[in-house]
Amino acid sequence: MSPRVVLIGPMGAGKTRVGKLVARLLDVGFTDTDKVVVAEHGPIAAIFAEQGEPRFRQLERAAVSAALAGDGVVSLGGGAVLDPATRADLASQRVVLLTVNARAVEGRLGDGKRPLIRDGVSDWQRIFDERRPLYAEVADLELDTSHRGYDSIAEEVAEWART
Q1: Which of 39, 42, 75, 118 has its CA 20 to 30 A from that of 59?
Q2: 72-76, 112-116, 138-142: range with lowest mean pLDDT
C-alpha cells in the first residue's frame, strides 16, 4: 500500500515533527528518509564531507524509493525533490508541502550541522528559492508552519488525508 501522506519542504519547515504527529493521528507508521540514511550510512554532514553531495543524493534516493514502497507517513529531506525519479514517484502520492519563512526558520536551523547552509539563513533562502518550483510541481496541499502550532497543522493534514 502506498503512503497516505508524503511531507516535503525546505529545511526547518517541521516535516519530521508534523509527520510524527500526522502518523499518530492516522494510526500509521512514520518514516523520515534523512533518519534512514543516517541509520544506514552515518551522519549526513560526514557523508557530504567524505563522499560528496552526489553520493548523498544516491543514498537519499534509495531511502526515498524504499519509503514510498511502504505504508504510512513519509517525510523527505529538503533536497529529495531534486531527483527527477523522486518527483515522478511523488506524482502518484498525496503530497503536502510545508513551508516556513526566513524569520521563523532562523531559530529552527539549530546546531550548524546542515552542510548546505553554513552561512545560515541566506543559504537557506537561496536553496528554498531554487527548490520552490520543484516543491510546487509535486505538492497537492501547501501549509505554512511559520506561525502555527505543529499540532494544528498535523490535524489539518490528517483531516485532508482522510478525505
Answers
A1: 118
A2: 112-116
Q: Grid coordinates representing 104?
A: 521563523
d(CA 66, CA 140): 21
| CB-based contact 76:18 (threshold 8 Å) | no
Query: Across the strands, what pairs with 141?
Result: 96
| Statement: 5-158 belongs to CATH 3.20.20.370 | no
Backbone dihedral region for residue 120 (phi beyond 0: left; psi -120 to 50: alpha; all else: beta): left
pLDDT at residue 37 is higher than 90: yes
Output the CA torsion sign for 53, 86, 40, 6: positive
3-class secondary structure, 142: strand
What is the C-alpha to C-alpha distance for residues 81 and 90, in angstroms, rounded to an integer? Answer: 9
- Phi, psi angles (nearest 5°) of residue 162: -75, -20
| Measured distance CA(151)–CA(110) in Å, rounded | 21
Specify the pTM. Answer: 0.91
